């Protein structure tokens, strides 16, 4: 009887000590799992562009220990910025964490590529085929490296300014790739405004993309096939209707006229879309305030599928 009691006592000590260590390990793992992860300035080798391309990634809370796959939002930067700006100025990690925790957004992967000053296009004057790279190499690379849901219904795109232009361009040209598109303060011009754009501004913006042109000469095959307003005019309406659209621009933004004209064009073509004009200009304060709405909008699309 005494011997049996001793065995029970030793067994009790064993059960108290070993599970405690396991508990502490599991607790630390659970603590780690509740945080999101930012992987900043990762690189991939592009054959199309013949160079290393940088990108940053937001991985949602629980990603590292989960076996599930996640929808993906491609979040594009503006002119002169890079893959770090949505992190450093846009507070993407904090805003996404709060949206996911509150339930207004689903857990998702957010990918932020560096596009330099390419306007996300295949350039007319240089052998810099960013559009081809993004579609043919980058999306497949991301979906092979990270735990992504790869159906169109779980892929969305958004971006600010030049990235807003890229958002419109990619969604209009490749509606089979993106279920939702949310251009913010998109750099978009009507034909009349594009012809009247100052020459210094034109050359500064597009020197890596197209030749220096003035007035009506700017409206050529290249601009018609690549610039947002022309694309939205020429792309078949039925194709544009397959994408969920969210357009957002500040009332003090220099691009408000182009965005309002885009809104009118989409109304005329009976393309369903959400259009938001709020107080603000072309700045990070406005875009930080916009991002929660974007995350909720694309999440609504992910949840429908």
How would you characterize this protein structure?
This protein has 305 residues and is α/β, with parallel strands linked by helices. It has helices spanning 2-33, 85-88, 92-102, 130-145, 162-173, 191-195, 199-206, 221-226, 228-234, 237-240, 256-268, 284-303; strands spanning 37-46, 51-59, 72-76, 109-113, 155-160, 180-184, 244-250, 274-278. Strands 1-2-4-3-5-6-7-8 form an 8-stranded mixed sheet, sandwiched between helices. Helix 5 links the parallel strand 5 and strand 6 (180-184). The radius of gyration is 24 Å and the shape is globular.
Question: How do the strands and helices of this protein lay out in sequence?
Answer:
Layout: H1 2-33, E1 37-46, E2 51-59, E3 72-76, H2 85-88, H3 92-102, E4 109-113, H4 130-145, E5 155-160, H5 162-173, E6 180-184, H6 191-195, H7 199-206, H8 221-226, H9 228-234, H10 237-240, E7 244-250, H11 256-268, E8 274-278, H12 284-303
Parallel strand pairs: 3-4, 3-5, 5-6, 6-7, 7-8
Antiparallel strand pairs: 1-2, 2-4
What's a concise summary of this model?
The chain is α/β, with parallel strands linked by helices and 305 residues long.
Using only C-alpha atoms, the radius of gyration works out to 24 Å
Number of separate strands: 8
Gap between N and C termini: 65 Å
Which word captures the global form?
globular
**pLDDT average, as an integer?**
91
- In spatial order, strands of the major sheet run 1-2-4-3-5-6-7-8
Instruction: Return the string of H and E elements.
Output: HEEEHHEHEHEHHHHHEHEH
Task: Provide the helix percentage.
Answer: 40-55%
Report the uncertain regions.
Answer: 1-18, 25-32
In what range is the share of β-strand residues? Answer: 15-25%
